[in-house]
Every structure is written in C-alpha cells, then in structure tokens.
Amino acid sequence: MTTLPETTDRKLGLVIDLDTCVGCHACVIACKGWNTENYGAPLSDQDPYGADPTGTFLNRVHSYEVQPEAGTAQLVHFPKSCLHCEDAPCVTVCPTGASYKRVEDGIVLVNEADCIGCGLCAWACPYGAREMDAAEGVMKKCTLCVDRIYNENLPEQDREPACVRTCPAGARHFGDLADPDSGVSRLVEARGGIDLMPEQGTKPVNQYLPPRPRDRLGHAPETAAPDAPVALDAQGFLGWLDRTLDKI
To answer: In angstroms, rounded to a whole number, what is the distance separating the alpha carbons of residues 84 and 129?
Structure first.
C-alpha cells in the first residue's frame, strides 16, 4: 500500500464558485481536450456517435434544482473532479503505489505505468472522482494540469489548469490554499468556502463557495391598494435597479 506524506510544501487546488457557475460545460470540454492530447494515456470514448455512448472524463458538471425553505427554486450547477485530499484514501488503498500524493505541491497523481486497473482507488474515493479508461485499462483522474502549470514554454497566463483558463464566468480559481495570503485563500475566507462531505475525514484541498442569497421580490400586504408596487423591499441587484430608475 502507498503511504501519504505527513506534510506538503504547498496545497495547490481549485476554488469553485457555485454562485457564478452557469453550467456551460466549457471546463469539461477543455479538460477532455487537453488531457486527451497531452498528459498520460488519451481519454477514450466508446461508441461516441452511437445509441449508448460512454467515455472518460476527469471533470463533470451536475445540475440540481434546489428548493429553499422560502422563495423560489434555484438551479445549482455543481462541477466535480478530484479534490486532491490531504488524507486521500485513494492513495493509501493502492496496492502498487501507482496512486501517490506529491510532497512539493500536494497534487494527487497516478503513475499509469504502475496502474494495474484493479479499481480499488475508485472504490475508496467517496467523491466518485476517478474513472477507469476502458481503452487503456488504467485509472484516470484530474491532475490539476500538472503539465501546464509548470510548463515554462507556455505564456505565464496559461500556466493554470485548462478548466480554470477556459471558464467564461470566472467561476474557477487556482492557487496555493496553504498560503493564507494567496488569492484563493482570501476568496475562501471572504465567501465562507466549504469542504465537500467533511464527514468523510478526507480533508479535501479543493473548496466550494456556496451560492449567495438570491434577490427576492416582496409581497404587498393584503390590505394594500390595488396599484401598490409588488416589490416593496427589493434587495441586491433588483434594489439597485429600482433606485437607479427612480432617479431618471
């Protein structure tokens, strides 16, 4: 079995803003493209144009309709990939040492040359973040685009994961979460970033920013005049818009 490092020099990871993500799947396509053409074995597809297509993806976006206790339902788009956990069970269960966590940056990787395709790491991961490539017979997972972030042949602005670079809404952020002064750490502090499924005890590095409260329209009292405005106490953008229009 593989052992985890006691500490890592850095904790590189992602901060994903669930309030900003629009579910466009641009990150999914960018991830698929980059990791098919570059690092490791290609991400294969089976019967892509047939009746039952399947394939290997390192990043997926799930969409859920959430019904708050008060107010209208809200659609939340939830991107999911490897969380590069500090206490990664996918690493400690690996019988060949193919799965490992790097000391220098905390990234969890798979040495595909040593992977025997047993699937134990996928079984151990509580987040479902590993996928067996049907064509290659090896386990695939998010690498944080390790071949991009350290590639000095790329312009500096491109030395970040493909999913972060391509996100049109700016919902994905990359950096060192061990550095309290980094941009991602300040963002987590300001917005109350959360662990995914903390009860699992894996201590994921990646953080999610919860959706902000939505603008809500107030309701006029039953005794209000028929021509009374519906939005009595609109807040946020609606409140700003209302106040701005009043000045025109």
So the answer is: 10
Token pair of 139 as six digits: 């386990």
DSSP secondary structure letter of residue 123: H
Pairing relationship of beta strands 207-209 and 12-17 according to DSSP bridges: parallel
- In tens digits, what is the pLDDT along the chain, a chain of 248 residues? 678 999 999 999 999 999 999 999 999 999 999 999 876 778 999 999 999 999 999 999 999 998 878 778 889 999 999 999 999 999 999 999 999 999 999 999 999 999 999 999 999 999 999 999 999 999 999 999 999 999 999 999 999 999 999 999 999 999 999 999 999 999 999 999 999 999 999 999 999 999 887 666 554 444 444 444 444 455 555 555 556 556 65
Q: Which tokens in the block code for residue 177?
A: 């979460």
**Residues 148, 189: Cα–Cα separation, whole Å:** 27
**Contact present, 85 and 205 (Cβ < 8 Å):** yes
- Which amino acid is it at 135? A
Alpha helices, DSSP H, located in the chain: 26-37, 89-92, 120-124, 146-149, 162-166, 183-191, 236-246
Type and span of the H or E element at 175: strand 172-176
